[in-house]
Design a protein that fits this description.
heterotrimer; A mainly alpha (288); B mainly alpha (346); C alpha/beta (238); B: 346 residues; mainly alpha; 2 domains; two-stranded antiparallel ribbon; globular; C: 238 residues; alpha/beta; 6-stranded mixed sheet; 5-stranded antiparallel sheet; 26% strand; binds adenosine-5'-triphosphate; binds magnesium ion
Chain lengths: 288, 346, 238
């Protein structure tokens, strides 16, 4: 009984963290059909922003929930103006440039923060279920993810930006048709996606030892979650994160965490082969 | 590069052999052979991606996986066999076979560019992750321990076929690697002149049209992908012989990124560009390695971004233009659209 | 009577709620010249795509020379001897005219024979002066002719041409009609067209598509006189 509660929390946590680290990438990919390979480094930047802010005496929740998204969002804005806006419509070039950016950021992190592990203590104490110890912070991650998905649905359904965004996801020329400059829509989207990456990085910061190269671990998982999710934003995120999170945890329990990661990657490859356009190209069509 | 007639093919081969021989013999006069060996090996690795991407339109984000597979095959087979000739052959065949399977899996599923990128990237990541965990004594292949993060040291180096005692390292290794690169370069040239190569270029240009002419795209892409992997595997074996150790970092994302950077910097859709790109970028990297001011990842990344933005066709076409201008005349330089995998596949 | 080279039975293609092709049964005989007409969106191009394998029909069957090819991959159908020119120009843009046509010829010839074949097709279509030019730099009419060259070089016994004369000048259209007639010496040719002048000049059996169905099938003169067809085409001069 206790064990099953613990396992349930672990599975939910795996799913929630996948959704959280993929959300920013999904927004950018869904709207602009661009894969930002620097997404992992954006998250790391969010992590460093959080740690730095905490070091300066800021409350940790403010640091990760507010400062990290703002810092990374602004960074994304600048990068979009400087680099990506020149490459729209050239999908592969955009991907390559974002990979270049990712390498630059890793180099930058090494120069600024040093090639060492930095971290910040989790702000929520653990508790025990029967004989098992549960990390209380995992529950926090689950809550943040759920709130984030709910917020995304609300924004897409209820706001003018959401309407334009949904239109653009269906047809790339839609923004222009609705009287919005695509340039502005892309800029806003990219900044928003970056801010979400910053949020994810901030929230994950207490869980991972932050090193300059930590982004690589995130990007692969985020990348496959987004691609496997397919064209429908929130439903895609939720279903892909659900599938992969479950696979990951089951194999982690049965064999080992590394096998869990490998199983996740294998599941992604098989899934893409079966449904090349992602889960939501087959199911949940027409939702958000 | 209209390589249609026999005479122009012969001339092309002649030029490559003469220039290649001059470079192979001349470069040791101006640079250290140890470093040159690395440049040559990377040049071969770049050529492998240049072939499948620049001419076949297949953008593989995990070419490093085949490089690593070649290196590990060489090391593992070497330890088990005790000499290096058969391992060298295996280090071409094993990656090629793996690529054929992976390629068939992808191409028969009709996956678009982005999906191809994900799967190749994930594939190399799986190998990277897994190899990092193979530290324990349980992970052995024959007599070879995989060694996890630390990799495999102490395998037989390259030797003269039939004479396991005559190991090649230092200058001899350089000449072997350089001649191997030259031979691979000639084979690639020959392949591109052949019907198979010309149809591969057609597939790069317009896959659907070529299939409507009756060609099986999936099979052809799979074969080309496997050939590229075989070349990358050979480069991996030579690398193993040069470095005298193989580690999981051969499979890393950064390694794959570098191969792509070499191709972009050198120029896609040319044979010489990727080789040149590998040499230039690696030289820059080694030079930067000697100082502490700028991190070399930062510089590599910056190079990639700047090339994508300002010189997306790379330096080889510019050099060709310069050359055409220098040798006279007003002959317009050959222009070929550099492929980059087209627009979004929705 | 010549053998039937192309036959469809109840061919149906649906896209979500749209039924683009709806129970079409066609029969085309060897060396026949057939025109397919119908207003925009009638389903002509979709029908072609089902025939050549680019689309897998939702229902119905396709038979080529008596063999069922429903759902086959495009390259298998093409390799049987079916050449198609699609409505939207589709060629290897970065390659020259010669290289394009050579590639089509190479499928059923060895290298040398393919080169000779390409030469022959280039001569027949008077593409000589632009043989070394990249397709990407050609004008629309020239591209159309090269596409026809691709089809010719395949030596097909069934040719599907989707709007081959669209956007061509009067002189070019006349040439196109001649070439199509020449093709019928060795192949059945199905032509989709809107230009009635052009169809008259081909003077053949016409199948009229309307909303995915076959409306009438008759000789061109009788079809043109048919009031129902005129109604369907209202707005397009017949
Ligand atoms: N891939 C597709 N997805 C959804 N609907 C499609 C698709 N292709 C065609 N259609 C629809 O099918 C119908 C038939 O289109 P089709 O292109 O076959 O007509 P057509 O007769 O060739 O018209 P035209 O004379 O304009 O070329 C149209 O309503 C079109 O919108
Ligand atoms: Mg049409």
């Amino acid at each position: 009984m206790d064990l099953s509660v613990v396992i349930l929390i672990e599975v939910l946590y795996a799913i929630a963290s996948l959704a959280l680290i993929s959300a920013g990438l999904a927004v950018v990919f869904g709207m602009m059909k661009v894969i930002n390979l620097a997404h992992g480094e954006f998250m790391v930047l969010g992590g460093y922003a959080t740690i730095t802010a905490v070091g300066l005496g800021v409350n940790i929740f403010i640091a990760m929930l507010i400062i990290a998204p703002i810092v990374v969002g602004l960074f994304g804005l600048v990068v979009e103006r400087l680099v990506f806006r020149h490459l729209y419509g050239r999908m592969i070039d955009t991907m390559l440039a974002s990979w270049g950016l990712s390498l630059m950021m890793i180099g930058g992190f090494k120069m600024i923060f040093g090639n060492t592990t930095t971290g910040v203590a989790g702000p929520i104490p653990g508790f025990s279920v029967g004989n098992y110890q549960v990390n209380g912070y995992n529950l926090f991650v689950i809550v943040v993810s759920v709130l984030l998905l709910v917020a995304m649905v609300a924004v897409l359904r209820g706001t003018r930006f959401g309407l334009v965004a949904r239109g653009t996801m269906q047809r790339s020329d839609m923004a222009a048709a609705m009287g919005h400059s695509p340039d502005r829509v892309y800029m806003t989207t990219f900044a928003l996606g970056s801010a979400l990456a910053g949020l994810a990085g901030g929230v994950m910061a207490p869980l991972v030892g932050l090193v300059p190269t930590a982004g690589a671990a995130f990007i692969a998982k985020a990348f496959i979650t987004v691609i496997a999710g397919g064209p429908v934003l929130v439903a895609g995120l939720a279903s892909a994160a659900g599938t992969f999170g479950l696979v990951n945890q089951v194999f982690s329990f049965l064999v080992s965490p590394v096998v869990g990661d490998v199983a996740l990657l294998v599941a992604a490859v098989v899934l893409l082969r079966l449904i090349p356009r992602g889960i939501t190209s087959r199911f949940f069509r027409g939702r958000i | 590069m209209a390589m249609t007639t026999g005479r122009s093919a012969a001339r092309d081969t002649g030029v490559v052999v003469i220039l290649g021989a001059l470079l192979v013999l001349g470069l040791p006069l101006v640079a250290d052979t140890n470093m040159l060996t690395l440049l040559v090996i990377y040049g071969m690795l770049a050529l492998s991606l240049g072939l499948i991407w620049g001419f076949g339109g297949i953008l593989c984000f995990g070419q490093a996986a085949f490089f690593g597979l070649g290196a590990y095959t060489f090391a593992i087979a070497g330890i088990n066999i005790g000499e290096s000739t058969l391992p060298l052959v295996l280090s071409v065949l094993v990656p090629a076979a793996v690529a054929a399977l992976l390629g068939a899996f992808m191409f028969y599923g009709r996956l678009g560019d982005v999906y191809l990128a994900v799967i190749t990237l994930v594939f190399s990541l799986i190998l990277f992750r897994w190899l990092n965990t193979t530290a324990g004594p349980a992970y052995v292949i024959g007599n070879a321990r995989l060694g996890g993060f630390n990799g495999i040291p102490g395998f037989p180096l390259l030797n003269v076929p039939g004479y396991p005692r005559w190991e090649l390292w230092g200058d001899p290794l350089y000449y072997v690697a350089a001649v191997a690169l030259l031979v691979v370069f000639l084979l690639v040239s020959w392949l591109l002149r052949s019907s198979f190569g010309r149809i591969a270029i057609g597939i790069r240009e317009n896959e659907e049209r070529v299939s409507l002419l009756g060609y099986d795209i999936r099979a052809r892409k799979t074969v080309l992908f496997a050939i590229g992997a075989g070349i990358a595997g050979l480069a991996g074996a030579l690398f193993a012989a040069w470095a005298e150790v193989v580690t999981p970092s051969l499979f890393s994302l950064q390694q794959s990124a570098e191969i792509i950077i070499w191709c972009i910097v050198g120029g896609l859709g040319t044979r010489f560009g990727p080789v040149l790109g590998a040499a230039v970028v690696t030289s820059v990297k080694i030079t930067l390695g000697g100082q502490a001011m700028l991190d070399n990842m930062l510089v590599l990344g910056l190079i990639l971004v700047l090339f994508v933005l300002f010189l997306p066709r790379g330096i080889a076409p510019e050099l060709a233009r310069l050359w055409a201008w220098a040798i006279g005349g007003n002959r317009k330089p050959v222009r070929r659209r550099a492929p980059r995998g087209g627009v979004a596949d929705g | 009577m010549a053998e039937t080279v192309l036959e469809t039975e109840g061919l149906t293609m649906r896209f979500g709620g749209v039924t683009a092709v709806d129970g079409v049964s066609l029969k085309v005989r060897a060396r026949e010249l057939r025109c397919l007409i119908g207003p925009n969106g009638a389903g002509k191009s979709t029908c072609f795509k089902c025939l050549c394998g680019l689309l897998k029909p939702t229902e119905g069957h396709v038979f080529l020379r008596g063999e069922e090819t429903t759902g086959w991959d495009p390259h298998r159908i093409a390799a049987m001897g079916v050449g198609i020119k699609m409505q939207v120009s589709s060629v290897m843009d970065g390659l020259s005219v010669q290289e394009n046509i050579w590639m089509a010829a190479r499928r059923h010839n060895d290298t040398g024979a393919a080169t000779a074949k390409a030469e022959e097709v280039i001569d027949r279509l008077a593409l000589g002066p632009i043989a070394r030019t990249d397709l990407g730099r050609l004008a629309h009419g020239e591209r159309q002719r090269v596409e026809l060259g691709l089809v010719m070089a395949q030596d097909p016994w069934l040719v599907l041409l989707d709007e081959p004369a669209a956007g061509m000048t009067g002189e070019e259209v006349t040439r196109m009609a001649e070439i199509i007639h020449e093709m019928t010496r060795s192949a059945a040719v199905v032509v989709v067209e809107h230009d009635m002048q052009f169809i008259r000049s081909l003077a053949s059996t016409v199948t009229v598509f309307h909303r995915g169905r076959v409306l009438v099938e008759d000789h061109v003169d009788r079809v043109m006189a048919d009031p129902v067809v005129r109604d369907v085409y209202l707005g397009k001069q017949a």
